[in-house]
């Protein structure tokens, strides 16, 4: 995920960030990705928004493109409500859309600013009733401290917490006794701890180089360290105290199928001279089933047809039957 200015928000620079929260474009993104070999779940990131700049999503893949699913929301423009004292200026013809000024003399009076009705006027001899003093609340919210830091190293966050207490003895009571609308909003502050140690960030294994038999697979291993809630690539020397994971490994999805000669050579196709003979050759899986020839190595396929020579044909005289007419007899030599 990158801004148009070229700043990487998630991943970038041929490096893979760890799952977590990343700030950018005026909002906070939550990044998730699987870290399991051959996982079918895809990577995802989510932000509540709104964003304040255009963002570009780049995708690098080794297998066929699995596709992208995305959702977004567009805020609706709020409709301005009419002020309470607004009266429409309609056409007063036939008494529609207007109002009679003389009728208004018997209605309640409005303040010039439209701020509400004037209080009713009391007779001169009547004294307004005195409101009783408000009784102080028996329970109130009190700050109880802060939560633990959200990170054990690097930069995290902690929030203030409040509890409901009795005013007289400051003992904690059920929150239902306090006014929920007056509960102070928790204040969040950053908490800086010691820097996080460098670590090896291990990528997923690639596909096996062969579909059967012994092959090789690879993975990316980077030395990473967290700074200010960002995971950055660092020199491999910072991870020298850790054993470096292997970046290559042998793999075998299944045992390869092999060619089998299923019959002896047949008899030569001619009794003498040059002919052909054949035999049955099949591709057989490791469990003994016949499979298509493409599953076996075509370069190693045994011949199933070959020439055969049964020797020279014998030479002899042969002749036809006597003809009915008197004449010379044709004698053929072979």
UniProtKB/TrEMBL annotation:
The GO terms this record gives for MF are: metalloendopeptidase activity
What keywords sit in the KW lines? Repeat, Secreted, Signal
- What does the entry give for GO biological process? extracellular matrix organization; proteolysis
Annotated Gene Ontology cellular component terms = extracellular matrix; extracellular region
State whether keyword Signal applies.
yes
Coiled-coil-forming residues are none
Q: Does the keyword S-adenosyl-L-methionine apply?
A: no
Location in the cell reads:
Secreted
Q: Which SUPFAM superfamilies match?
A: TSP-1 type 1 repeat
**All residue ranges annotated as the ADAMTS/ADAMTS-like Spacer domain in the record:** 1-75
Region annotation (Disordered) maps to 75-139
Q: Indicate what this protein is called per its UniProt record.
A: ADAMTS/ADAMTS-like Spacer 1 domain-containing protein
Organism listed in the record: Champsocephalus gunnari
